[in-house]
Write a structure and sequence with these properties.
heterodimer; A: alpha+beta; Ubiquitin-like (UB roll); FAD/NAD(P)-binding domain; 7-stranded mixed β-sheet; about 20% helix; B: mainly beta; Folate-binding fold; 4-stranded antiparallel β-sheet; two-stranded antiparallel sheet; globular; binds zinc ion
Chain lengths: ~1000, ~100
């Protein structure tokens, strides 16, 4: 057994020895150890290098507040977790851990040169130094800083583990399972409340896990914890979550919990997720997060072997590990006396308690003196010595004089306790500064929560238990479970109060006196910031980076405040307080992402004809969440060739297109036509049953919002189509007006986008190809002219057949129930007479006809008239959405951008979409811009490139010669009407 | 995440809802009779108060109904929710009495 283990005691299982490695060296520990306690048991204090100066650092704390001992734990190449606090990593067999931020090795690190030149690296160094020249930032400074900085390294392989998230509801959420939290949970559960109790540690119990003296109701503290947990476990309304950090407090009592399910296991079972993210909605919350011990600020307080007093005590009593053989205590608070007495009782030499206070009286100091421990009051630590571990503490008077070197191999310090108000503050509760406790304490609540125990300044076991019980009772009652009685617990324990020191003791040098261990910020840096004019703590924080490391200043923030307040000679609350933000401790991205990764990252929409498109060799594109067939290349074809072939097929014979993504809304009711009259710019009352109309929908500001063909299926039934991307937005807009402006209308709106498969059959042979497949439908031109709709059967399937065209050719859109789409598609393909075409060809074919695409030609500032569809506006209607805005004078200004066509003088040049139009390309920049290209293609049918554009006063400029300035020179274009193909529409009407 | 009390469904998390802007801004009965300024005021001017705000919400991923709420823009807490066409109690939204 290690000489640094106590012979008995602690909560480790001495019968289960575990082998682990740190930086490739093999060590032994016990089940129940953390990596930190196991390293200490092997005499390893040096565990990392500091961020900026690469100073050797040891283990400071025994919990989640640890700023120094950050390690990477690796299971395999993909499972490397950096920046874990060794104080929270539970030991398992064959655990592999590595130190961070050192090169080439922990013992010899060349970055230590930064420490030698530290006078050159003061606060704000980056801001002052890396300002110019600008090019140097990108090429020189940033790469160098990035290489030198950074804590751990993330693995580059995909994370192979599974993370899940869960929602939970409860009456009372208790955060923290120390004495106050356990008492609160016990009482609330007893009252009948549904309780969730969580704690970040592997074991519930908090400070009771290192409590060997006190008894509760006659039980030793450890036994009381076990009994309490057994009581809670037996209650079906209670859920206890160890290894679970409440990392964020969100609006309306939603608290985020991160449960680490398998990280502590040597062989994680495959059926368990690695982490679980809980989103708990609690009627009432009890915050029982305890308090964190503060270090003392003195020169070289960061030497390995310098540790928080209660952490040293915790290692001794909970883990059976001796933090040192000869331990000097430095303190500004009674708490360290308890640690001194426990060490002394364990047979460890405590040569000196150096108390910064002028007097030390009361139970604890008297007990220490009675035990024969030397107590020196009014003493400061002037420095420490030792190479990679503390070897002596230099004790001095505040007014200077000789330094008394006291040999030691560990130094335990206590600056007092800082209540953990992080979650209370995150809940937007207001804090107040309590001068006696020297701490910010919860004052005004915003959410339905209450703090209990040390996190609200109620210190001492007796008081914390009573406070927790009262909080549990109150929370249960507020959640509707009255009648509980907070039990009176008989406790034997000696307490100590608040107080302590914020900032360094008077007479302490500021150089190398670390405040923020993780970001390497010293008292000197903070002093410099105040001398340079920073007054607010928020500014000091950003300038010095104090409190901005991954620990968010758990051990440092109050010291920084104390230093700034003293330097400015103002009361501490006047300096302000930095904002507490989630997460309380870092949470993995895996936990937040949970199952939303890979195929589940974003929902994908496939049309009913997707498999048919795949079979036909389609190349797909993403259109919103939809996968749409873009083109169908044959062997040897690129996109250009495939699209050209598809277009020729449509223009000469027939093409088949999957239009299923079109938004579809069924509008039904006695007032359906009236509703459409009010929504769309067109007139609908006189549209006959069986007829269709191209509808334009404006927003109330008069700009085009959407368009689509609307067919009248019956007097009280319309089949409305929308753009693919606008479907949900249009329905929401319609629902808004229907529900809130015109609730008197007898109208029902139903989204039927996914109910119908839509197959567009387009081309001069479309009618002949379709004819054999229809029943009950007369396809003759006279019976079914352009812009008509009829219900009948296609391939024996009930169908709505539209005669409409987005290609300029004779065309039909066959709507059949989605599941029957594939059968119809296959039947038509089997004729051998049709060519499947994709969205790329569809875009080109419609551009040849000058048909706009809302969102491509229009950009939210185009009126129907601007977009060339002003003919659709029924000006005689009394009102419609957008009509009043269209009546504004500026909406008819002649200089508005209007839809035009463009033909390049070089027929093979294809313009870039988005390119600008000017009349004189030789003018000096900034040029006067007249408009921009909205759509641009090479038209194989026309043997010429074509483009659509929005051009200022465009309709009056037909025939004008303009230019598109490009990096390679200006391109000359001729302005034309936007219809390039079959302007008379003879082919449509065939 | 806010917890919103849909008057039709009960309390549901915020992700089920979409925000609909200020409530009780009725579309004018005859927009054509309005001056440009009056129409622009209807389109664009909102009260944006610090404090209690009557606003529209839609339970999009639920019953899909629009409803109204009074929310305190300082605390982000809801004072009340109520159906379209209803008036909130004066103690919930003092402007209702104006
Ligand atoms: Zn609802």
């Amino acid at each position: 057994m290690s000489a640094l283990r106590t012979p008995t005691g602690g909560r480790i299982d001495r019968s289960r020895k575990l082998r682990f490695s740190f930086d490739g060296r093999s060590f032994d520990g016990f089940a129940g150890d953390t990596l930190a306690s196991a390293l200490l048991a092997n005499g390893v204090h040096l565990v990392g290098r500091s961020f900026k100066y690469h100073r050797p650092r040891g283990i400071l704390s025994a919990g989640s507040d640890e700023p120094n001992a950050l390690v990477a734990v690796a299971r395999d190449a993909a499972r490397v977790t950096p920046n874990l606090r060794a104080t929270q990593v539970e030991l398992y067999s064959e655990l592999r851990a590595e130190s961070q931020n050192r090169f080439p090795s922990l013992g010899f690190d060349i970055g230590v040169i930064n420490d030698v030149v530290s006078p050159l690296l003061p606060a704000g160094f980056y801001y002052k130094t890396f300002k110019w020249p600008a090019w140097a930032w990108q090429r020189l400074y940033e790469p160098a800083i990035r290489a030198a900085a950074g804590l751990g390294r993330a693995p580059t392989l995909p994370d192979p583990d599974r993370y899940i998230s869960r929602f939970a509801h409860c009456d009372v959420l208790v955060i923290g399972a120390g004495p106050a939290g356990l008492a609160a949970a016990l009482v609330a559960a007893d009252a009948g409340a549904r309780v969730i109790l969580c704690d970040e540690q592997a074991e519930c119990g908090g400070s009771l896990l290192a409590e060997t003296a006190a008894t509760i109701d006659g039980w030793p503290a450890g036994d009381w914890v076990a009994t309490t947990l057994a009581t809670l476990a037996a209650n079906p309304r209670v859920r206890v979550l160890p290894r679970t950090t409440a990392f964020g407090y969100f609006a309306h009592n939603m608290v985020g919990l991160n449960e680490r399910v398998t990280d502590h296991l040597a062989a994680p079972p495959a059926d368990l997720p690695r982490e679980r993210l809980w989103q708990v909605r609690a009627a009432e919350v009890v915050i029982a997060t305890g308090a964190l011990e503060r270090p003392l600020v003195f020169p070289n307080n960061d030497r390995p072997g310098v540790m928080l007093a209660d952490a040293g005590r915790t290692y001794l009593l909970r883990y059976g590990v001796v933090p040192g053989r000869r331990v000097v205590i430095a303190t500004a608070h009674d708490a360290a006396y308890r640690a001194a007495l426990d060490l002394h009782a364990a047979g460890i030499a405590v040569p000196l308690i150096a108390d910064l206070r002028q007097t030390a009286t009361g139970d604890w100091p008297e007990a220490a003196r009675a035990a024969g421990i030397r107590v020196r009051t009014g003493a400061i630590i002037a420095t420490t010595g030792g190479r990679r571990r503390v070897a002596w503490a230099g004790v001095a008077q505040p007014d200077g004089g000789t330094i008394e070197p006291v040999p030691c191999d560990a130094l335990l310090m206590s600056g007092g306790w800082t209540p953990s108000v992080h979650l209370f503050s995150q809940s937007r509760g207001k804090l107040r500064f309590d001068a006696e406790a020297q701490a910010f304490l919860p004052n005004l609540s915003v959410e339905r929560e209450r703090s209990a125990g040390a996190c609200r300044g109620v210190f001492g076991l007796t008081a914390a238990l009573a406070d927790g019980a009262a909080a549990g009772e109150a929370a249960a009652k507020a959640a509707g479970h009255g009648g509980a009685r907070a039990p009176r617990m008989a406790v034997t324990a000696k307490a100590f109060g608040g107080g302590g020191l914020l900032g360094p003791a008077a007479g302490t040098a500021a150089k190398h006196a670390f405040v923020d261990f993780q970001n390497d910020v010293t008292a000197k840096d903070i002093g410099l910031a105040t001398r340079e004019g920073f007054r607010s703590i928020e500014h000091v924080k950003r300038y010095t980076t104090t409190g901005m490391a991954t620990d968010q200043g758990k051990t440092s923030n109050m010291h920084a405040l104390g230093i700034v307040a003293a330097a400015l000679d103002v009361p501490l609350p006047q300096v302000g307080l930095t904002t507490f933000r989630m997460p309380y401790t870092p949470v993995t991205f895996g936990s937040f992402a949970a199952l939303s990764r890979g195929d589940l990252f974003e929902p994908l929409r496939r049309t009913p004809l997707h498999a048919q498109a795949v079979a036909a060799g389609a190349v797909f594109e993403d259109v919103g969440a939809w996968k749409r067939a873009r083109y169908f290349p044959r062997a040897g074809e690129d996109m250009h060739a495939a699209v050209a072939r598809e277009c020729v097929a449509v223009r000469s014979r027939a093409g088949l297109f999957d239009g299923s993504t079109l938004g579809k809304i069924e509008i039904v009711g006695a007032d359906a036509a009236e509703f459409l009259n009010r929504m769309y710019v067109n007139a609908w009352s006189k549209l006959g049953v069986g007829r269709c109309r191209y509808g334009i929908l404006c927003r109330e500001d008069g700009f085009v919002a959407d368009d689509g063909v609307i067919g009248r299926i019956a007097a009280d039934r319309f089949h409305v189509t929308t753009t693919t991307g606008g479907a949900a937005r249009v329905l929401a807009l319609m629902e808004d007006y229907l529900q809130t402006e015109w609730p008197d209308l007898d109208v029902w709106l139903t989204s039927v986008t996914e109910q119908w498969a839509v197959i567009a059959l387009q081309g001069p042979q479309a009618r002949d190809i379709l004819a054999p497949f229809v029943a009950g439908i007369d396809l003759a031109r006279a019976a079914m002219p352009h812009m008509s709709v009829v219900e009948g059967q296609v391939c024996g399937i009930p169908a709505r057949l539209f005669r409409v065209s987005f290609t300029g050719e004779l065309g039909f859109e066959i709507n059949v129930p989605a599941d029957h789409g594939p059968a119809v598609w296959q039947a038509l393909m089997a004729t051998g007479a049709v060519t499947p075409y994709g969205t790329e060809a569809m875009h080109l074919l419609r551009a040849e006809k000058g048909y706009i695409i809302v969102g491509q030609e229009t950009d939210g500032t185009a009126t129907p008239d601007d977009a060339g569809v002003g003919w659709a506006v029924a000006r005689s209607k009394r009102d419609f959405v957008g009509k009043r805005s269209l009546a504004r004078a500026s909406m008819a200004a002649p200089a508005r951008k209007q839809l035009v066509g463009l033909l390049t003088e070089d027929p093979n040049l294809v313009l870039e979409e988005g390119a600008q139009l000017v009349d004189d390309p030789t003018q000096a920049p900034p040029m006067r811009l007249l408009g921009h290209v909205t759509s641009s293609y090479y038209s194989a049918s026309l043997g010429h490139s074509i483009a659509l554009a929005m051009l200022s006063g465009g309709r009056a400029r037909h025939g004008a010669r303009l230019f598109v300035p490009m990096p390679g020179g200006a391109i000359a274009v001729q302005v034309t009407a936007p219809v390039f193909y079959d302007p008379e529409g003879a082919r449509l009407d065939a | 995440m806010l917890l919103i009390d849909c008057p039709y469904c009960g309390k549901r998390p915020e992700i089920e809802f979409s925000y609909g802007g200020e409530a009780h801004v009725a579309r004018p009965a005859d927009p054509q009779a309005l001056s440009d300024d009056a129409w622009a005021a209807y389109l664009y001017l909102r009260s944006n108060p610090k404090g209690r705000h009557a606003e529209r919400w839609r339970h999009t991923h639920g019953c899909a109904r629009f409803f109204n709420a009074v929310r305190d823009t300082v605390s982000d807490f809801f004072v009340t929710t109520y159906k379209v066409g209803e008036t909130p109690p004066a103690e919930a939204w003092p402007r209702a009495a104006e």
